[in-house]
Fold this sequence. Notes:
By secondary structure, this protein is an alpha/beta fold. The protein has one domain (34-240, 302-322): HUPs (Rossmann fold, 3-Layer(aba) Sandwich), CATH 3.40.50. Helix content is 42%, strand content 13%. The strands form 3 sheets. A 7-stranded mixed sheet has the order 7-8-6-3-4-5-11, sandwiched between helices. Helix 2 (58-69) crosses helix 9. The longest helix is centred in the N-terminal third of the chain and has 18 residues, at 23-40. The two termini are 39 Å apart. The chain binds iron/sulfur cluster and zinc ion (2 copies). The site of one zinc ion has 8 residues, from helix 1.
Amino acid sequence: MKCRKCREKAVINMRQHKLALCKEHYLEWFVEQTERFIKKYKMFTRDERVLVAVSGGKDSLALWDVLLKLGYQADGFYLRLGIDGGIQYSDESYEKIKKFVAEHPGTQLHVVDAKEMYGESIPEVAQRSRRGRGKPCSVCGLIKRHEMNRIAHDLGYPVLATGHNLDDEAAVLFSNTLHWQVGYLARQYPVLPEGDGFARKVKPFCRFYERETAAYALLAGIDYMYEECPYSEGANTIYYKELLNKLEAERPGAKLHFYLSFLRAKDKDGLFANWEEEKVELHACERCGQPTSAPGLCAFCRLWPEEVLNKPQEAFVPLTLVGG
Ligand code: SF4
Ligand code: ZN
Ligand code: ZN
């Protein structure tokens, strides 16, 4: 198979685009496409500071890398979860991220260490709190969302970017459709506007297949964490991804078509445009100020004992590493 641009040996064949490319032209194509998606969905401009949520995996590090290549003001945010799972998942992920930062002079990485800051790792909080029920994912999601919003707000980043790819988005869309979760469907989009003190949320990789982001990370020489979080095993989204992969194997492009048709129905046909959220009165959390549906403390602040909540403000400032 030859590269469509230069006729050299192709390293990747994207059947859904009927496009084969060599290493050099693939890296170029991937960066250009990202820029196209950022512009198409009006995600952010070069004047806006972007905070990229990084996990150490291929998607988030590739996203950070591409944004820097494109000249965006992109810094990283990392939440140390304190997950071991026999592979020292958190330690190894952190090492990969620190290596990435060291190789990118001038970039900043803001780190929140759950154990250091709040006194417990994510699995420990999950064990103790009623939300966990053994699996830490619900607590983990809550803490990640809260801390991402807090750091973006406190450090003045109007935009929060995550590395969700097409496989992630199609799996969520499939799940939302299977259960007809209309509220979620109404909100699912590459950009979630800012509001209520929250930064704008963007997903610049939402139109790339997972194998495309993996190919980019490999070919661009990014050293990323191959292992998934040990708690992701058995997750519904993984099952939905497998189902969609079976469909894709029979019908190349089916996943992309599923997601893009959904976006088109929203953009062109106004699908869910008139959907109105049930109006819930929001209150500012008494401790952190983030919006919450019940008066008093928000769900995040309710996770922690008094002595943690009463620590001085300085105890919650993230550690910032500067690249180079
Ligand atoms: Fe957190 Fe994801 Fe791991 Fe669950 S699978 S604990 S949500 S990182
Ligand atoms: Zn080529
Ligand atoms: Zn709060």
